[in-house]
Amino acid sequence: MGLDRRGFIHLIVGGAVGTLFTPIPWKFADDLSIWTQNWPWIPRLKHGEEARTATISKMCAAGCAVNIRTVGGRPVAAEGNPNNVLSQGGLCPLCAAGVQMMYSPSRLPGPMKRENDSFKQITWDEAAALLADKLNATVGKDGKLAMISGDESGTINEVLSGFAAALGATDYYLMPGDGQTSSRVWTGLMGGEGQIGFDLENADLTLFIGADALESWGPTVRNQKAFSASRPGGEKPKASYIYAGPVQTRTAAVSDAWVPVLPEGLASFTLGLCYFLVKNGASVDTRDFDSFKNLVMSHYTPDKVEKLVGLKPDTLQDLSRKLAQAKRPLVVVGSEFGQGGGQALQAAGAALNLLMGRLNQPGGMIAMPEAPKVVDAALDRKDLLAKDLVSYLMNMEKGRAATPDVLMVYEANPVYALPQSEAMAKALAKIPFKVSFSTYMDETAALCDLLLPTPHSLERFDDVYTPHGLGFSAWALAKPVSKPACDNLNSADFTLKLAKAMNIDLGFEDFESVLQAKAEQLGAMGGFFADEAAPWDVRSGAASAEAASDVWDGAQEGKAWCSVATVDQRALRLGAEVLAKAAQPSPDVSYPLSVSPTLQLNVGSQKVATPPQNLTTIRNTELRGKASFVQVCGQTAGKYGLSEGAMVKLTGPRGECAAKVHITERVMPGVVEAPLGFGHSAWDAYTRGKGDNTYKILSVTTEPGTGETVWTGSKVKIAKI
Predict the structure, then answer these.
(1) pLDDT band at 36 (very low <50, low <70, confident <90, very high)
(2) Based on the structure, what is the number of domains in the chain?
(3) 697 and 597 in one domain?
(4) Most buried of 39, 297, 370, 632, CB within 10 angstroms?
(5) How much is the pTM?
(6) Is the pLDDT of residue 35 over 60?
């Protein structure tokens, strides 16, 4: 009998089904798999128990809430923690790379001391004895010991400043930032109380003046979350955004409008907006309102603002009309890169919010209580923020301030990340004995005589209290997720142990106890855990929350303690007399171009170089080979005969740097956009020698009326190489 088509199909299908159900081929495949996996050259992975630990990564200035995934106790990845309100499940590019940076080749292996041109590893006991000997020689001699901290929001400043005070030293400084300038303006110039923040979540129109809030200014991830929540997909936007500044930053790119304003003209632009509000009857119950009114009505009329910043009166008037028509308008001011902006801009921004009646209102400018200190000898936070590091170093460089015998630097890189960086580095180099507490071999550590590396952010106890820009009080705990990968010791614990050995009683045996005391103090202030209700909803009355019963236990679980308490103001001033001197820009024909530095967190920060995994995120119009780029518009390029990719030298009053040119209309005429984060001479092979350091061409001036050191709006000239 022949095999027809139907029979053939039955044969094939039946054979296939039979093959599927017989164990022989599957046993053969299993044996083959086992055999191939047992080949000796197959790499073996060491597995272990998988876990996730909630903590805070302080790779960025604001701190991101993270869940660290560990395998066998070894951190392998960072994920956002959606239960912590600081970043609400998001991560910035630096904190996302935090685990990789734990294993960076630039990490310091342990305590080291300089011997000639190299470092020799020593024990922690030897390091403590050496430092104690140097510090004993400074006791009671103010000016002989100075400290610099790169942590603006942590309680470790209480330990370090308390230790310095016990030794009789008063020269304790933070690396510069907008938070310090804001405090000097609010609590000094304007006579206010508390810490200023911004309730972005409840605003229906936010005007960012200079502050690149969605890229690098303030608590960036929280800012992005607030923006995203106001723009739900497929729905009508709940809020509008406008950006005013010299460059179409990433904040400007997603805003509803970009208003080009020169960096040195931002304060004048802001006072020009005040003019329209005052003209339409806005007022503030302050002692100097009449003086302020006379100032803006005479010096910041639309035609005068046009001459100062090049902005048409119609544009200014239209913007003021939008602010007046919004139900919950908010103005957020700051430098494009978070530092060096001067007091005039901060005062003008605060005055504009006050004129709109937006102080301590949902969607407004919020005055929040400062956290109580727990180390009695420590500097009060207001006094700490009042100190100006750049002014101190400039006076030291010029011989107007004594050079200390000992300098201690905690998690900061002043040799690299200060304006006029080469001059600042020379001033720091004059100090006879320098100590670095950095985790990494950065430029400052390379210049020091004693290296006392603190553990990586994920390996130590630490904390964050209300980063500048946040619209509510918040405290979150960082706890170690693993043992230090290197022989590092928490700088706070080292300092407490050293203090005890020097017969100094700071009131605590270890840093964990300090943080427990901080949690207890915050619990006494009231507040709640934000996993129960969002603080902006509590502020607006849309939700309520029960008081936190045990702040320490909740913080260890990864929760953030929050409060929407505000500080009542007694007798505010608008600072009219100071603004009359400080706000107007002065032209400099010898240096015709304004520099607009750009800080992008994927590239790095003041204290962290580019993580290796972030290199692929850098565009070839930002870095190509070993050359970084500056950006100019077509009009500026044509005026100076520049072409795409041309190599140029930028020269300022106190320094110069080299870069290639990228031509883009994202930059307004008369401005050079220059990226920060390149030009490292230390760190590792991934960042060292890539591009040039923009900080070299940022020149410091003194703001008239306030005495504040300012480097926003630094001026340069440009020439082809």
Answers:
(1) low
(2) 4
(3) yes
(4) 632
(5) 0.92
(6) no
